[in-house]
Design a protein that fits this description.
The protein contains 17 helices and 10 strands. By secondary structure, the chain is α/β, with parallel strands linked by helices. The chain has 2 domains: 212 residues, 3-Layer(aba) Sandwich (Rossmann fold); 175 residues, Rossmann fold, CATH 3.40.50. Helix 11 packs across helix 16. The radius of gyration is 23 Å and the shape is globular. The N and C termini lie far apart (49 Å). Bound molecules: 5-phosphoarabinonic acid (PA5). The site of 5-phosphoarabinonic acid has 14 residues, from loops.
Length: 430
């Protein structure tokens, strides 16, 4: 179960403030549960967990197994909520330097011509045995019309059709139930289609086929991931204290004028996960002049970079650390071959986990003393079950906290502004 440690942050607020915020958080939580808040048509991320579609989970697992047997490369083509969740889970659970099955690559998440050109060149490079790589493409777009994704899909789709006779089965589309250009293409070409439920928004969609297919292709057990999330939903009423306290703290930081929430972890495996949290919270809360900027930090790396600013810069920063309790690796510091020339023998036999943990606790201490409220969000072990729990915890937390700000957590009206300006510059008709 996800738990939180807010001892450091509590030093920056009064007991009364916390009690009032707790009440407000309870009201916001009820709005989510009762579907009485803004944007309540978009609560499908809870519905899918309360009525699990086991047939779909099985279908995705079987399809992914077939792809894993045949593919060298699997490309996820999507942007925003259509790719951050898959990237987060795959980075967290797969080996760093080896592929556990097909190599999973991402496209359609920006408009870099260099990236796309080099990606296609990479696809074209034959394998060591001279054979063409076996490439699959999963285009993911709820609207079916997002330019970044649509452009990359156009280029990659052409390449796949040119390169393989069985192109149709290599292209898989994940999109809204109907409408949109992508649905037209699917109908014409007969590609396999997975549906993103109408009532699930992009950034809340990792536990739909949006995230589940790429995650399963990467060899990760999606049943355990999904049911990890289900277990939190089932017990949320009686176990909601952590969620309510965390929402209360972040709300108080917001109300006190803090501007930045540095979301970090001491596990590089979680850098993709913190990016998913950033997108989820940022796109949900940043409206009507409200919101804490969710900045990312990967520790201890960034203690040698923005760490200076966090420690001694402008005091408008709140910090959230995602912590994994149990060691991710059992590596220990080796015995020195000769004299203690590097002066590190005091660490001989210590595990890297223990050393990393000292860096974490030392950082919490130093940052708190330097005027930074720190909140730890803790899971026990880095596995499918716990990540599933953390995913739903954050989805629910985001909805509750954003309701406390009295804005709609499920829309993103501001995203249209850059699109309108860009389309005008590109001379698009409508
Ligand atoms: O959370 C959201 O709704 C957005 O981040 C979308 O996921 C993103 O804009 C991509 O949209 P689409 O899936 O329609 O291509």
């Amino acid at each position: 179960m996800v738990h939180i440690d807010i001892e450091s942050a509590k030093r920056f607020i009064t007991t009364d403030e916390f009690a009032d915020a707790n009440q407000k958080a309870e009201t916001a939580y009820r709005q989510v549960v009762e579907g009485s808040g803004q944007g309540s048509d978009w609560l499908g991320w809870r519905r899918i967990l309360s009525e699990p579609n086991d047939a779909e989970l099985e279908e995705i697992t079987d399809h992914a197994t077939r792809i894993r047997e045949d593919a060298d490369l699997f490309i996820v083509c999507g942007i925003g909520g259509s790719y951050t969740g898959a990237m987060a889970v795959i980075k967290a659970l797969n080996p760093v330097f080896r592929n556990n099955g097909p190599e999973v690559l991402f496209a359609g998440h920006h408009m870099s011509g260099k990236y796309l050109k080099e990606l296609i060149e990479y696809l074209e490079e034959p394998k060591a045995d001279g054979e063409l790589k076996s490439v699959y493409l999963n285009v993911i777009s709820k609207s079916g019309s997002t330019l970044e994704t649509a452009l990359a899909f156009r280029m990659l789709r052409s390449w796949i059709h040119k390169s393989y006779e069985d192109a149709d089965r290599r292209i898989i589309a994940t999109t809204g139930p109907s409408g949109g250009v992508l649905n037209k293409i699917i109908e014409e070409e007969g590609y396999k289609k997975y549906i993103i439920p109408e009532d699930v928004g992009g950034r809340y969609s990792v536990l739909t086929p949006v995230g589940l297919l790429p995650i399963a292709v990467a060899g990760i057990d999606i049943q355990r991931l999904f049911y990890g999330a289900v277990s939190v939903l089932e017990q949320e009423k009686k176990n909601r204290k952590a969620l309510i306290d965390y929402a209360s703290i972040r709300y108080l930081m917001h109300e006190k004028g803090y501007a930045v929430d540095v979301i970090g972890s001491f596990e590089p495996e979680l850098n993709g996960f913190t990016a998913w949290i950033q997108q989820l919270i940022g796109e949900s809360e940043g409206k009507e002049g409200k919101g804490l900027y969710p900045a990312l930090a990967g520790f201890s790396t960034d203690l040698h970079s923005v760490g200076q600013l966090i420690q001694e810069g402008r005091r408008n920063i709140f910090e959230t650390l995602i912590v994994v309790e149990k060691p991710i690796s059992n590596l220990v510091v080796n015995r020195s071959d000769g004299e203690d020339i590097d002066q590190l023998s005091y660490l001989t036999g210590k595990s890297f986990h223990e050393i990393n943990r000292s860096a974490l606790e030392g950082t919490v201490q130093a940052h708190s003393e330097g005027g930074i409220p720190v909140c730890k969000v803790v899971i026990n072990i880095l596995n499918e079950q716990n990540l599933g729990e953390l995913i739903y915890f954050y989805e629910l937390f985001t909805a509750v906290y954003v309701y406390m700000l009295e804005v709609n957590p499920f829309n993103q009206p501001g995203v249209e502004d850059y699109k309108k300006a860009m389309y005008r510059l590109l001379g698009k008709d409508n």
